[in-house]
């Protein structure tokens, strides 16, 4: 789907699987965390900006759907898209796929607030991020 | 069809960075292992096929060159491909890039065979895997080409003046679904050993900190002789092969204590750098003053 870009590609490790024999939910979150590092860069926040500018994005809301199981050794990739924004937030939709057949295994829509890491408060998006988000944003309903 | 394959995308986690404030070598290996799993799928060895047959590709040797350090939060991506299929061996490569500036951060060049993960025996390449690999095989002249590993290589035998640099047993959570140690943890042993080797030349952590020095691996070459399985007691024997100018050279032999077999042989090239400037500096005098008769290089 246009507007989605690859944000993670890897595999499921044996130690990430639980007593049910599939990847435990905490590791879906780990993949989103890695995908977000890539999306930070895409929307104009590179690691130096994070360190020097003392700014960051922190999750304030998340809706997730677990669609299919993942097992040890499975290869996976995530695609992400900007689907919304407000004065202080960016909403990104993440979709995790089994790389063998491109079947959807998990999706999560996450709203993150732009933060001043010294005051620990949400602040308005920078002009650079606002412009980039506007350029990348796709129809949120289309991504639902 | 492009023969250069997208095999990895991720980022550097905070807990993957060591006291040098950059991503530790074992986590480069994690990313290369992820990429290798994706490459196997392109060769017809999907995770389901590997799980049902208990067979797949395994590394016989790996050359790793670290080109540029990466720090916490850095987004990364990996490309790779097959260079050649010869007899029953596949040679290929994985390149890990910094997504911010597209700078090449690490290079893996490997030779792999097809193996039974239960018996750990090498098998002929299945026809369908060979065909898929031959379709992808390409010298990739536009991708970075490593020069041959220069200088002395650690031999697959014990040498005088090697000492114990690490000891442990392989935990369940360090293993894959076939009860083999993950590649990351093998590299982790070599990483842990570095501090012991530095200590053996007369440097302490306090001295290193006072001089504002860090150390970095530049080049690894590993050969895999025997499998390492869950619960195995292992010991690492190491020594300084040589030290000249800005470059030191270590040798490692990782031994399975249950069988007494040498499992992995590795040669490591590295340097010291100024922790503030992040630039290489001449080796500390403790390295250059190390007794020449104790250098493993004298026996090679």
Overall description:
- The complex is a heterodimer of chains A (144) and B (300).
- Chain A has 144 residues and is of the alpha+beta class.
- Chain A has a single domain (5-136), classed as Hotdog Thioesterase (Thiol Ester Dehydrase, Chain A).
- Helices cover 24% and strands 39% of the residues of chain A.
- Chain A has helices at 25-42, 47-52, 127-136; strands at residues 5-11, 55-66, 75-85, 89-98, 103-116, 121-122.
- In chain A, strands 1, 2, 3, 4, 5 and 6 form a 6-stranded antiparallel β-sheet that branches.
- In chain A, strand 4 and strand 5 (103-116) form a beta hairpin.
- Chain A is globular.
- Chain A starts with a strand and ends in an 8-residue tail after the last helix.
- The model of chain A has no long low-confidence stretch (mean pLDDT 93).
- The longest helix of chain B has 18 residues, at 25-42.
- Chain B has 6 helices and 12 strands.
- In chain B, strand 11 (262-274) and strand 12 form a beta hairpin.
- Chain B is globular and about 55 Å long.
- Chain B has helices at 25-42, 47-53, 127-136, 183-200, 205-210, 285-288; strands at residues 5-11, 55-66, 75-86, 89-98, 103-116, 121-123, 163-169, 213-224, 233-244, 247-256, 262-274, 280-281.
- In chain B, strands 1, 2, 3, 4, 5, 6, 7, 8, 9, 10, 11 and 12 form a 12-stranded antiparallel β-sheet that branches.
- Chain B has 2 domains: 1-147, Hotdog Thioesterase (Thiol Ester Dehydrase, Chain A), CATH 3.10.129; 152-300, Hotdog Thioesterase (Thiol Ester Dehydrase, Chain A).
- The mean pLDDT of chain B is 96.
- With 300 residues, chain B is α+β, with helices and mostly antiparallel strands.
- The chains are: A alpha+beta (144), B alpha+beta (300).
């Amino acid at each position: 789907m246009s507007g989605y870009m690859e944000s993670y590609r890897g595999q499921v490790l044996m130690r990430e699987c639980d007593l049910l024999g599939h990847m435990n939910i905490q590791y879906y979150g780990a993949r989103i965390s890695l995908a977000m590092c890539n999306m930070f860069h895409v929307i104009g926040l590179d690691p130096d900006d994070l360190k020097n500018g003392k700014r960051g994005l922190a999750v304030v809301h998340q809706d997730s759907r677990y669609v299919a199981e993942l097992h040890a050794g499975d290869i996976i990739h995530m695609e992400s898209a900007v689907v919304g924004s407000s004065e202080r937030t960016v909403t990104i939709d993440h979709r995790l796929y089994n790389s063998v057949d491109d079947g959807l295994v998990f999706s999560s829509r996450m709203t993150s607030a732009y933060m001043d890491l010294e005051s620990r408060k949400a602040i308005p998006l920078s002009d650079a991020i606002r412009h980039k988000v506007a350029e990348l944003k796709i129809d949120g309903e289309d991504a639902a | 069809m492009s023969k250069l394959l997208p095999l990895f995308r991720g980022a550097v986690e905070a807990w993957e960075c060591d006291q040098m404030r950059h991503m530790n070598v074992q986590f480069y290996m994690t990313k290369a292992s992820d990429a290798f799993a994706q490459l196997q799928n392109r060769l017809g060895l999907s995770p389901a096929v590997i799980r049902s047959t208990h067979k797949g590709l395994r590394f016989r040797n790996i050359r790793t060159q670290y080109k540029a350090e990466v720090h916490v939060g850095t987004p990364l991506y990996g490309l790779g491909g097959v260079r050649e299929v010869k007899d029953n061996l596949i040679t290929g490569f994985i390149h890990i890039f910094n997504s911010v500036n597209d700078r090449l951060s690490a290079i893996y060049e490997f030779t792999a065979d097809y193996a039974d993960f239960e018996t750990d025996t090498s098998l002929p390449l299945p026809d369908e895997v060979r065909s898929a690999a031959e379709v992808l095989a390409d010298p990739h002249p536009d991708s970075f080409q490593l020069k041959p590993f220069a200088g002395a290589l650690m031999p697959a035998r014990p040498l005088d003046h090697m000492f114990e640099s690490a000891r442990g047993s392989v935990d369940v959570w360090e293993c894959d679904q076939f009860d083999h140690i993950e590649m990351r943890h093998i590299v982790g042993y070599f990483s842990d050993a570095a501090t012991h080797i530095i200590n053996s030349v007369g440097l302490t952590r306090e001295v290193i900190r006072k001089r504002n020095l860090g150390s970095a691996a530049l080049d690894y070459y590993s050969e895999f002789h025997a499998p390492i399985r869950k619960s195995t007691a292992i010991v690492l024997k190491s020594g300084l092969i040589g030290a000249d100018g800005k470059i030191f050279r270590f040798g490692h032999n990782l031994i399975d204590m249950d069988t007494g077999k040498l499992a992995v042989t590795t040669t490591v090239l590295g340097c010291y750098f100024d922790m503030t400037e992040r630039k290489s500096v001449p080796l500390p005098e403790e390295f250059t003053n190390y007794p020449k008769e104790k250098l493993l290089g004298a026996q090679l």
